[in-house]
Amino acid sequence: MPASSNLPCATTRIGAMSSAETFPDETPTLSLCGQDFFFTGHVTSYGRVPHVYLDHDIVRFDHMNENNLTEYLVLGPKGHYFRLTRSREGDEAANTDTSNLEDYCGIVEFLDEHDVERPAFLYLGPDNTYYVRTDDGSEKWVLSEDIVRDALQVTPTANQSGAQSLWLGTGGSWVVQYRNGSFNFDLKGRYVALERTLELARDDELRISALALDLLGDKSFAIVYDNGVVEHETGSLRDFDPTGFEVWVEEQWDL
Predict the structure, then answer these.
(1) Is pLDDT above 50 for 168?
(2) How far apart, in whole angstroms, are the C-alpha atoms of residue 168 and residue 45?
(3) pLDDT band at residue 6 using 50, 70 and 90 as cut-offs
(4) Cα–Cα distance for residue pair 131/111, rounded to 1 Å
(5) Count of domains in the chain?
(6) How far is residue 76's CA from residue 43's CA, in Å, rounded to a whole number?
(7) What is the pTM of this model?
(8) Domain assignment of residue 84, given as a range
């Protein structure tokens, strides 16, 4: 796994993505929020989130070899989170654990209305903003008018867009990937190292497989592209092991 030193952040090329996944409709997700982080995968999930797991050390879940459960966790600022634990065999009821998601106006009702256990995509942003999409393409969001116009590219009254994923950062920053595979971004001068790698990736017509922007800062991020390149800048993030993260990426995407 040769690392490139000509970029302003840690870069590792692992290999091309495989289309064979245990859960092809549930892709791995990344969350960064200050000193907290969690990476959800279909093979393993791990992170450090003391207010969720009541443990100040790294927690790890081996979904294939231990208890046959999947662990899905999306972090938001101010202690918010959405957590889902399910049996891989589907023979046990799913357990959903959330923290004051009522602060994210309309999201609980949306998930109930669509009878959704795990959304196809969910991102909890700063200032109670969010974007969520279900497998059938239904969407719900609470966003600034600028992000609705420039990222989703729809009118303020619309309830449907062409977005596949929308990642929200501090200061009104955002990255959007559309369902046709293209992506766009406006980082508002933040996450400087990420901006350069996104520009290069867009020139190469790459797709984003997973991304997290630090919800409390303006520098840290982690991103995985569909050609197997992994890039991250995590600064003083406690207990983050770059090599361990890259190994985790290999496992989830079968690289």
Answers:
(1) yes
(2) 22
(3) very low
(4) 12
(5) 1
(6) 23
(7) 0.89
(8) 3-253
